């Protein structure tokens, strides 16, 4: 037990935007579901590469410097002819999302259109498919060492998100904000949905982020 | 989806015969990709599950096959967000940060890994040498994963180019000089390979890398894995040597790659015809079974080198030192056997337009530097007139704002200095003169930058400079610096 305890006790200095982004990514692709990774920043390889899955085929797309990319894009086949793209931008705080809202919205929407209209040999890859986006913000809440103030801080942060999210929503299908933080050495997710977010997608994300 | 362990299951696995490792990395994904590779390809580690209650710092559990032991690898990315063990800090801050350093529970580095999604071609081919040398100097085995071929982004129309031999040769130098394993593992990209009519489908770089990392960890725990680990070291070296001796088409002829890229490399015969012996020697040296190789890679025959024509290039045109070097000839005439005279050009290199050059006429070069820049006492202290001199023109300042930029020069200084200026016993055999042919911005304080280079906060270009230079010229001035 001491071995595992020692490994767990070794902790980073703070909870960062990268921690939050990776937590969402790992959860959706490895731990709780098996979404396919289209793109993530920081990329492990050449930053221009994006991948899409068509059936059992994986296509590599070259994006180029002019297309702005959000931090995370994932893909899932809902049924044979129905595809979901999970598009997310992560920041160290919700205030940062608000501050950069126009740029963030543009990059997320543009990238979704890029994926949706992806072509190979001049032919649209997803021509006969129904495609839906799930737009998200991911924010890191660093609530370590707050002691008795922790609950209050988290509630205040979530309240800000709840009060503001509809004002940030001009996305197709609504937008969700996934707040990520540590509590008692566990990763916790808390999702706030805009009013426009469909029930079906709420059910989908709740299953991934709230199930034990 | 992978097998997720509860705390109870993870505790059970870590109770007995369990050894922890830590994977520190430049970002979390680098470690995750490596571990995913091990899960998919390793023939020596059996994946048991992941404990990920803190999802961004998961602990992966493996069983070592044929041994009654389990290991756990905790991902600790990114470097800045952890209190790094001192040895890890030394490796990543020597010149440039590499991707992953794996340590044991006592924080001793076991293996360093650098990965890339592209081939090293064009301007970036030596960019990462500063990362590799940090591992070698700090006696940590290192693997560099790259691709055989890729498109050169500095060229239009997606020209496909292949990595040169110098990459493999540099790694062999590091292994022999620093007596620690330094390997390249190449991945093939079928799309790119098909564009140049090459079939590398038999190569399995991913499996080799996964197995080598696995065996390095296994050997750390149980010395009975020595033979297997050595067999993989042999496999990696064989692949490296096969790459540099494979046949390529050059000027309508089929020749060996090493003959195209570096025909005058000493001990080329060993590389081409006695590979097994070369591999045997390297394996013995990196495993501490032999002190010195029975060959030398750096007994250069300068008569085989070609005249360096980059002196006349547009890029270097107009810079004071270059213009003087162009005008002055310090061709050497040497007597050789049978009363013949051999002409050695002023500057020569392994290829005519290389980014570095060597002169044998150090005396004349010294006189030119003194006439232009003074500082005779300092030059006398730093330059050994009996040695040839390696000359590397560099840019430090780039763009309109003249910002300090490390790539690719930080890596190039390492690559060329390690290739030419030291012997396998790590003794200097050449002077190194670095000439920055881009003027610094107004108010630039060189001494401040050189002082900072000794710290973590220093830039990689200045770290590279202080570790290798004998003479540094910036802003048409010789910088007096005590290393």
Give the biggest sheet of chain A.
6 strands, mixed
Based on helices, strands and strand pairing, what is the structural class of chain A? alpha+beta
Helix run count of chain A: 6
Share in β-strands of chain B = 15-25%
Largest interface: A-B, 36 and 42 residues
Alpha carbon gyration radius of chain B: 24 Å
Please estimate the helix content of chain A.
25-40%
Question: How would you spell out the order of helices and strands of chain A?
Answer: HHEEEEEHHEEEHEEH
What is the number of beta strands of chain B?
Answer: 23
**Total beta-strand segments of chain A:** 10
Rg value of chain A: 18 Å
Integer average pLDDT of chain B: 92
Key terms for this structure?
heterodimer; A: 212 residues; alpha+beta; six-stranded mixed sheet; two-stranded antiparallel ribbon; 6 helices; 34% helix; 32% strand; globular; B: 483 residues; five-stranded mixed sheet; 17 helices; 23 strands
Structure, described:
- The complex is a heterodimer of chains A (212) and B (483).
- Chain A has 212 residues and is α+β, with helices and mostly antiparallel strands.
- Chain A contains six helices and ten strands.
- Chain A has helices at 2-9, 17-31, 94-99, 101-116, 150-164, 199-210; strands at 36-40, 49-54, 57-62, 72-79, 82-91, 119-120, 123-124, 130-140, 175-183, 186-193.
- In chain A, the strands form three sheets. Chain A has a six-stranded mixed beta sheet with strand order 1-4-5-8-9-10, sandwiched between helices. In chain A, strands 2-3 form a two-stranded antiparallel sheet.
- Chain A is globular and about 60 Å long.
- Chain A starts with a helix and ends with a helix.
- Chain B has 483 residues and is an alpha+beta fold.
- Chain B contains 17 helices and 23 strands.
- Chain B has helices spanning 7-13, 28-41, 86-93, 129-137, 165-178, 190-195, 205-221, 226-245, 257-261, 268-273, 275-286, 320-327, 362-373, 376-382, 409-420, 446-452, 460-468; strands spanning 18-25, 45-51, 59-64, 69-77, 100-104, 109-115, 142-147, 149-151, 160-162, 182-187, 247-250, 253-256, 306-307, 332-336, 340-344, 348-349, 357-359, 389-394, 397-398, 403-404, 431-436, 471-474, 477-478.
- An eight-stranded mixed beta sheet of chain B has the order 2-3-4-1-5-6-7-10, with helices on both faces.
- In chain B, a hairpin with a 4-residue loop joins β3 (59-64) and β4.
- The relative contact order of chain B is 0.09.
- Chain A binds chain B through residues 1, 3-4, 6-8, 10-14, 16, 18-20, 22-23, 26-27, 30-34, 40, 42-46, 49, 60, 182, 185-187, and chain B through 1-2, 4, 7, 10-11, 14-15, 18, 20, 22, 27-30, 32-33, 50-59, 72, 74, 76-78, 80-83, 105, 115-118, 191.
